[in-house]
Design a protein that fits this description.
single chain, mainly beta, disordered N terminus, Jelly Rolls, 6-stranded antiparallel β-sheet, 44% strand, disordered C terminus, 13 strands
């Protein structure tokens, strides 16, 4: 094969890979803000594994019939223990009889996680996702890839995966994990739930006679 043709094919393959990676990380309707956290306290959180790929926390809606409520922002803290950035999916699930159900309006977004402790804000205001009246679940699904493995001095046959998502402690657990199916973690567990800061947008309904 001609050397110029081989070079062309290599360049074409490289451009296609770059385009695929760019498309994978881009979402014009969702914007992410990253703020570096200066504190030295690592806190507590959850981490991905082959046994526990996804975590979620139930959120009560507390909305009234006089307004239409939409998702505005979701804020959370993460720690990336590797020298390279990692990726994770932020998900919003329907409430299916007290367990995470289907994705709410296909709400599954790939989030780029920097190599440090970071406060991340996901702005969903352009999506017009209505908040369910019966509550919902917010969770994270880990990308179990070689790039996201936490290596180093970790001695286990099944390596954990970056990043860590911050949680909170408490006697009553509000943490759900997924292996083959979702299950609720028992009370008095080390992490009681995911540490999330959620804000909404409201449009008052116009009442007509």
């Amino acid at each position: 094969m001609d050397s110029k043709l081989i070079l062309f094919l290599i360049l074409l393959n490289s451009l296609m890979f770059s385009q695929e990676k760019s498309d994978k990380l881009s979402n014009e309707s969702v914007s992410f803000k990253y703020e570096k956290i200066q504190t030295s306290d690592d806190g507590i959180g959850v981490i991905g594994s082959n046994e526990r790929r996804a975590y979620a926390t139930f959120v009560e809606s507390n909305i009234t019939e006089k307004s239409q409520t939409f998702f505005h922002q979701i804020r959370f803290k993460s720690i990336n223990f590797s020298k390279k950035p990692s990726e994770i999916y932020l998900c919003i699930y329907e409430n299916d009889n007290g367990f995470p159900g289907k994705l709410l309006d296909e709400a599954k977004y790939l989030v780029y996680i920097p190599t440090r402790k970071t406060l991340i804000t996901a702005d969903l205001s352009k999506l017009n996702i209505k908040v369910p009246e019966n509550g919902y679940f917010i969770g994270f699904e880990w990308v179990l890839s070689k790039e996201n493995e936490i290596k180093g001095n970790v001695k286990t046959p099944n390596l954990p995966f970056n990043p860590t998502i911050s949680g909170y402690t408490g006697k009553t657990a509000n943490l759900y994990t997924k292996r083959k199916k979702w299950r609720k973690e028992p009370d008095a567990s080390l992490v009681a739930g995911l540490a999330l800061d959620i804000s909404y947008l409201q449009d008052l309904l116009v009442q007509t006679q």
